[in-house]
Amino acid sequence: MKNIILIGFMGSGKSSVSHHLSYTLKMQEIDTDKYISDEQKMSIPEIFSQKGEEYFRDLETNLLKNLQNKNSLIISCGGGMPLREENQKLLKILGTVFLLTASPETTFNRVKNNNNRPLLNDNMNLEYITKMIESRKDKYLKTADFVIDTDNKTISEICNEIKNLVD
Fold it and tell me: How far apart are CA 127 and CA 132, in angstroms?
């Protein structure tokens, strides 16, 4: 089976949807942020603060290259992964790409109590999140095969939409 790839802004539901899909479809799940964190033996905020965002983005690109010959995976991508053009191309080669979206208000409510979001440190507010979502929108849309709005939907409903599109 082809890989199912989930992209979207932080708080769009990628991890939750990935877990549920992995369980229901009996497919291996790879959360790229968790994979990189485990590999580096550092949290994502530690990688950003000690090595910088560019280093982290290089790790993301290398991970995508290493996954090129793998199938039947559910790949939950960090929110910034589609920002690089090289990553956009690699993601499209790897499988079917689903963009999970949520309104800025929904996103803020989902992430406001999470300290593990280095790009939101000192910027945990609706205005900043709205600007970030808008600045990434074109790159997300360019990468996605399908767009799924997650506002006011359960994880099961979102997963059923994805399953119907890959069948």
Answer: 9
Which residue blocks in 67-154 are alpha helix, DSSP H? Answer: 85-94, 104-111, 126-143
What is the C-alpha separation between 2 and 85, in angstroms, rounded? Answer: 22
Task: Measure the CA–CA gap between 156 and 137, rounded to whole angstroms.
Answer: 25
Across-strand partners of 147? Answer: 99
The tokens for 148 are 């799924």
Ramachandran sector of residue 100 (left: φ over 0; alpha: ψ -120 to 50; beta: rest): beta
**Domain limits at 43?**
3-166
Number of domains in the chain: 1
CATH number of the domain to which 69 belongs: 3.40.50.300
SS3 of residue 147 by DSSP = strand
> Residue 136, SS3?
helix
Intervals of the chain under pLDDT 50: none
Q: How far is CA 41 from CA 14, 15, 73, in A?
A: 22, 20, 23
The reported pTM is 0.92
